[in-house]
Amino acid sequence: MRTVGVEEELLLVDPETGEPRALAAAVLARAALADPGQDVFEKELYGQMLEFATHPQSDMAELGEEIVRCRKEAGRLAGELGCAVVALASSPLPVSPSITVNRRYQWLAGQYGIATRDQLVCGCHVHVAVESDEEGVGVLDRVRPWLPVLVAVSANSPLWQGNDTGYASYRSRVWSRWPSAGPAELFRSAERYHRLVADMVATGVILDEGMVYFDARLARRYPTVEIRVADVCLRAGTAVLVATLARALVETAAREWRAGREPVDHGVALQRLAAWRAARSGLGGELLDPGTLRPRPAPAVLDALLAHTRDALVGTGDLAAVEEGVRRLLRCGSGADEQRELLAGTGSLRDVVTGCVRRTQE
Q: Pfam families of this UniProt entry (predicted)?
C-alpha cells in the first residue's frame, strides 16, 4: 500500500483581532527548545506562516490523527506567545506580509518584486510514494486532468485583503503568479521531465529545482509524487479526504501506466481553464469534466472521480470513508462556504478568523 504524507501551511493570527502576526521564528524556537531534534515544524516564506509535515502513513485514520496532533501542537506553541494558528488558505483581513530573513527568500523578493509580497497564501501538499521516477512521471501525466477537482474539494480562500473575491479558492489564483506554477505538458519519460527541469533552471528565471512549481511534480527529497494544488483545508477531515483521493489517483494512474494506457492529452491552455473554473466555483457550481473538458455540475464530476478511482479505493479499504466524506462535503459545504456563512452571520472578518481558529482544532 502506498504511503502518504501531508504538508500543511497555517496562518499565525492574533486571537482577539484575527490579524496575521509575524511570530513564526519565535514559534519555531519554542518547538526546538521543547524538542531539539524535532523535524515537524518548518519556517516558510513569511513570518505569518508556519508549516508542518506529517510522517509517511499508509492508514488514513492514522494520518488524520497525526494532522490533528500537529495542528494542536502548533496551536499550543503559538498560544504560549499569545497568538493562534488557523487553517485558512488566505487572510480575510488586510495584511502586509513579513518576508523571512533568509538568503533564498530575499532572492525571491528581489527577483519577483510585488508578486513575492502578495503571496501570503497557505496550501496543502500531498506526497504519495512511487517506485521510481519512471513510474512517477507516468503518474504525473495521468493525474493532471483530475487535479482541478482537488482544488474544488479543498477550496478555502474566498476572502482576501478584506474583500470577498468571488472565488472559492483565490489562493490558487494568487499562486499562479509564480512563473513556473500551474499545469505542465505531458512529460512522457523521466528523462524528458528532468531535462525540462534543468532547462527551466538554466534560464535563470527560477533559482533552482525547488522552484519548479508544477501542479504535481517529482519530489526532490523523497521517492514521491507531490501534488500541490490544494488549499490548506479548514477541517482536518477534509485534508484527509484530499490525501486519500490523491493516493487513489496516483494508484489508478500507476496501474494505467503499467498497462500501457495512454494519458489524456488535454493541452495546457485547456488545463488552465479547468483550474480557473474550479477555483472560481468550488463545489457550488459547475466544473469542467476531466474527460471532456465540458461543464458539468460539481457533484457529477465528484461521482466521476469516485468511479475513476473506485478500484484503488476498494484496494486500500477507503471507499466507504471517501464516499461519506464527499457526501458530507456536499451537504455541509467547503471551507470557503463556511467562511462565507460566518461572514454573513456576523458581518465581521474578525469573527470569521476566530471562528475558523476553533474549526482548525476540531
A: GCS2
DSSP 302-321: HHHHHHHHHHHHHHHT-HHH
Tell me, what DSSP letter sits at residue 97?
Answer: P
- Domain encompassing residue 313: 4-361
CA neighbor of 7 nearest in space, from 42, 32, 36, 47: 42
CA distance 316 to 243: 13
| CATH label of the domain that carries residue 314 | 3.30.590.20
H helical segments located in the chain: 24-34, 60-79, 103-112, 114-117, 133-143, 147-154, 170-175, 190-202, 236-258, 268-281, 298-316, 319-332, 335-346, 349-361
Instruction: State pLDDT tens for residues 284-331.
Output: 999 999 999 999 999 999 999 999 999 999 999 999 999 999 999 999
Count of structural domains, the chain? 1
